[in-house]
Design a protein that fits this description.
This protein is an all-beta fold. The protein is 0% helix and 43% strand.
């Protein structure tokens, strides 16, 4: 004997009890037919609100991913940096670390988008310069070495240019 069950076209499971009888003997068993899973709607595209960004060391920027279609089944976006020593990315937030260029990748489904991030060196301005001597008297032919102290210690350009009001 063959029992044929019609396909379940709904999304929920159906249960039935099938009883087979032959003379005075019968046998029953339960049948569960699962429903069809909802249709999977694939990601068709992903774009970023920025495709090129320039940052200074230590700055951050937020990238926003736009996944289409709106009703895609799984719109989860995964983020990666081509070089985390230059810039990191966490859920779209890009933090610059050091000078260089990286590509930030956003992926949803089988689609991806990128943003090129250029990080420039942070310029730390000189705030003050002092000399080890405030006044100096020299005899003809004498020389003295002056020492300049530049603050802050981590100033980007500590080049000192020396000039005299009377070179003779």
């Amino acid at each position: 004997m063959t029992v044929t069950v019609q396909p379940n076209t709904g999304e929920t499971a159906r249960n039935a009890t099938v009883t087979i009888k032959c003379g005075t003997i019968s046998k029953s068993f339960s049948v569960t037919q699962t429903g069809n899973p909802p249709a999977v709607i694939a990601v068709e595209s992903i774009t970023l609100d920025k495709t090129n960004v320039t940052l200074v060391e230590g700055e951050e920027v937020m990238l926003t991913a736009i996944v289409k279609p709106e009703n895609a089944t799984d719109k989860t976006v995964t983020w990666n940096s081509s070089d985390a020593s230059i810039a990191t990315v966490d859920n779209g937030r890009v933090k610059s670390i050091k000078e260089g260029t990286v590509t930030i990748f956003a992926k949803a489904g089988e689609k991806s988008a990128t943003c090129e991030v250029t990080v420039s060196k942070k310029v730390i301005a000189v705030e003050s310069i002092t000399l080890d001597k405030a006044e100096l008297t020299l005899d003809k032919g004498e020389s003295v070495t002056l020492v300049a102290t530049i603050k802050p210690d981590d100033a980007t350009d500590k080049t000192v240019t020396w000039t005299s009001s009377d070179p003779s």
